[in-house]
């Protein structure tokens, strides 16, 4: 495993992700991220055009984007 800083705008949701969360669960996740920050890092792999595909953490990525976070995150 390689840990590195990646800008949030370099991450793409996995289009094949079958997991769906209801609105209440997303609100709970957002509240948790607001209160504690990103506790569990996202797992990514290189994709095309210097981007990375999120393998684990697509819902966290949605929340981070909705909160307007653009800083580099440690992976």
Summary?
This protein has 75 residues and is α+β, with helices and mostly antiparallel strands. The chain has two helices and five strands.
How are the SSEs placed, and which strands pair?
Layout (H helix, E strand, L loop, with lengths): L4 E3 L3 E2 L10 H14 L6 E4 L5 E5 L1 H9 L5 E3 L1
Parallel strand pairs: 2-4
Antiparallel strand pairs: 1-5, 3-4
Report on the architecture of this protein.
By secondary structure, the chain is of the alpha+beta class. Helix content is 31%, strand content 23%. The protein has helices spanning 23-36, 58-66, and strands spanning 5-7, 11-12, 43-46, 52-56, 72-74. The radius of gyration is 12 Å and the shape is globular.
Using brief descriptors, characterize the structure shown.
75 residues; alpha+beta; three-stranded mixed β-sheet; two-stranded antiparallel ribbon; 2 helices; 23% strand; globular
**Number of separate helices:** 2
Provide the spatial order of strands within the biggest beta sheet: 2-4-3
Number of strands: 5
* Gross geometry: globular
Beta-strand proportion? 15-25%
Structural class: alpha+beta
**Biggest beta-sheet profile:** 3 strands, mixed
- SSE series: EEHEEHE
Task: Kindly report the average pLDDT value.
Answer: 83
What is the helical fraction, as a range of percent?
25-40%
Distance between the amino and carboxyl termini: 9 Å
Low-confidence stretches: none
